[in-house]
Write a structure and sequence with these properties.
Layout: E1 10-14, H1 18-24, H2 29-50, E2 54-61, H3 69-85, H4 87-92, E3 95-100, H5 108-121, E4 127-135, H6 137-149, E5 172-175, E6 194-197, H7 207-218
Helix pairs in contact: 1-2, 2-3, 3-5
Length: 227
């Protein structure tokens, strides 16, 4: 097997296109979200195959909570089912899972399941899987500022007050679905990320598409503002 050089340490993905995929296939939006979860699992597997250490998936933004009650219920049900069903996958592949975001506004069963998965996989070391759930980059920075202003000792590291404090700097940000925007995703950590946009809808994003993005990243001479 050919060893690929210059692989990203941390890949973050905006998984966009589930709704469009549903419409194109004359299916319900719920079907698109379910297909998207299956794609996410595959991409995590491909990341392990490549030896990538950190993956962050944008599952639900703060703004997404403004969607219809029916769609949110479907999303929460899908999240709960997938988190419950994929326990063996996480353990067998030594995946450590961490949720970032304001989980307090999510259904109790979902929160409890997320906490259980975090605690039970915390010793796994092959891959760190971060799930952004009810997360917003601006909101994260604002709440960190409030915390540090309310703290008597303000000499602490600002990053330690972020909900996303455990995330390493993002090397490669992938967005599927055709739109070229960041959508309020982990703004602090993507300051020097390479941005890769594709028209491929998330449920259709396959191994070839993912490896193409990694090849593109490998070809870049990253300078971080230096000459």
């Amino acid at each position: 097997m050919k060893i690929q050089k210059n692989l990203p340490n941390h890949v973050a993905i905006v998984m966009d296109g589930n709704g469009t995929w549903s419409k194109k296939n004359n299916l319900k939006r719920r079907d698109g979200h379910q297909a998207g979860v299956k794609t996410a699992k595959k991409i995590v597997g491909y990341s392990i195959e490549k030896g990538i250490k950190n993956i962050t998936l944008y599952a639900l933004s703060n703004e997404n909570l403004g969607r219809s009650k029916v769609e949110l219920k479907n999303l929460f049900d899908i999240f709960f089912f997938s988190f419950s069903e994929e326990k063996d996958f996480l353990f067998e592949n030594k995946i450590k899972i961490k949720f970032i975001g304001d989980l307090e506004k999510l259904p109790k069963k979902l929160r409890e399941n997320a906490i259980y998965l975090e605690n039970s996989t915390k010793k796994n070391k092959r891959l760190n899987l971060f799930i952004a759930l009810n997360y917003g980059g601006k909101q994260d920075i604002k709440q960190a500022v409030k915390k540090i202003l309310n703290k008597k000792d303000q000499n602490g590291n600002f990053e330690n007050f972020l909900l996303s404090k455990d995330l390493p700097e993002v090397d490669l940000l992938i967005r599927t679905g055709g739109f070229k925007r960041l959508s309020n995703f982990i703004l602090w950590q993507i300051s020097y990320a390479e941005l890769y946009f594709t028209d491929v809808l998330w449920p259709n994003f396959n191994k070839r598409n993912f490896f193409k993005a990694l090849d593109w990243y490998s070809s870049i001479n990253r300078k971080f503002g230096k000459s």
